[in-house]
Amino acid sequence: MFTFFKKKPPQRPSDDQKQDSSMEGLLKKCKLSSDFTSYRYSEECPYYIHYYKTLVDGKVLHDHVLPLIIEGEKGATLFDLQKTVPIDDSEIIKDAEDAQGKLLAGNIGIQCTSNMNEILLIPAITLEKRAVSLPEVEYSVVGPKEAFVESLDANLNLIRKRLPIPELIAEEIKVGRLSKTRVAVLYIKDIADDTNVQTIIQRISDIDYDNVLDSSVIAQIIADNHHSVFPQMIDTERPDRVAGVLTEGKITILVDGSPHALTGPTTLIEFFSAFEDYFLSYPIASVFRLVRLFAVFFSVISTAMYVGVLTYHYEMIPQNLLNPLVASRSGVPFPPIWEAIILELTIELLREAGARLPTKIGQTIGIVGGIVIGTAAVQAGLTSNVLLIIVALAALASFTTPVYQMGNVIRLIRFPFIFSAQLFGLMGIAFCFAYFLGHLLKLSSLGRPYLAPVYPLRMKDLKDSLFRLPIYMQTTRPMQMRTASPVRFETKKHKQKKPDIEE
């Protein structure tokens, strides 16, 4: 016969413990956790030891702290022990709230039996982090092959390695009532605009949220327009890109625990500029940028044009194209709108399946699934082969966007264009385009125009926007950054061509 016993609920701190702000109350609250260790080495030992074993490096404890405690004299004080500890940044604290933050940050706490209201805190944090690896989201053939990791200190190291100047300032802020996440705001003094710097610092400092685990959370909170689908800060995993935008006068946000950095203020055109463009010759880089912009435009309106023309404006189709188009749709029982929606949703399902499954399986699902489902849909008469080609090219064109965030936006805004084309034809596409254009005209990034330098028009900034001019012509920083030092280098020095050395 089996007897079932009701499990006793875990002990929770009482109201007295919650209100107790003394050192004794802090230790009682910490002892409720199973990974918190608190003990006295022996009855003769004058010290108590407290630490979280999941946060503390055991080697530091056993090699540097315990030998000194065992050899300590009975009448020794915390100040005497602090002088003998061979570890920097150790400190004696009386405030229980400060001691709590230090213990949770990976410090070893030591109390003396003669004075239990003070605690000596010795840094012994253990860091679990992965090694620097290749970029996965912003991979490039040419250029550096390093990407950010989840450690804030390691990410700062990657940036300072590229910008070894004292003017690179990193201001650290703790965000999140529960997570206490370290957030660093980076900028170059005497280049970045003080207004932009203070705007970002103020918005981050005003964040009242309990859990901040990634940079994307901060990007959503400090955005100018919280309801816009367009990203207002660039999310990047490349240290070289961060170093490049810092020299332009922009600001970078790093979050401990996130392998991505935020940069801003930004513009719409920057989302179609890969940082690899700066490692190529300017004619090739300019052509690639124009190809990306054309690909995005084609991806957004191609399916909508198919629906609008076949529904309302079939007289616009050339006679040579009309016969094969009619033949391909002769066995399709659905109107063009349902035909397009079925294929678009199928493409989205394949994308999500490929992204969520393991890498090797995801690639197989994407390739085999696309071929099998596409062929079966045409043979079953659910869609025409012409639309299948258009949707496949539109999906392929959307992959040319260098920044993943903007790629998701392109995937989303295709559907309003398709529905508008079904309701009003080509006029509906024009209305939808006018709506998004008006939205982009009003949108801003940290108070700066989102469509700059096209609107407001700044001719000098066009040298690195839709196309890229040679490096020797990039003499000034973007005007919209309002930098304190707009000149990057003197033009005269580069115009004077020195004679080549004769062999």
UniProtKB/TrEMBL annotation:
Residue stretches spanning the membrane: 290-312, 362-380, 386-404, 416-437
Q: Does the keyword Isomerase apply?
A: no
Question: Which InterPro entries would you find in this protein's record?
Answer: Spore_Ger, UPF0353/GerABKA_families
Region of interest called Disordered, as start-end residue ranges on this chain:
1-22, 483-503
Keywords assigned by UniProt, alphabetized: Membrane, Transmembrane, Transmembrane helix
Q: Per the record, what is one GO cellular component? A: plasma membrane
Q: Which domain of life is it from?
A: Bacteria
* Name of the protein this chain belongs to: Spore gernimation protein GerA
Native organism = Metabacillus indicus
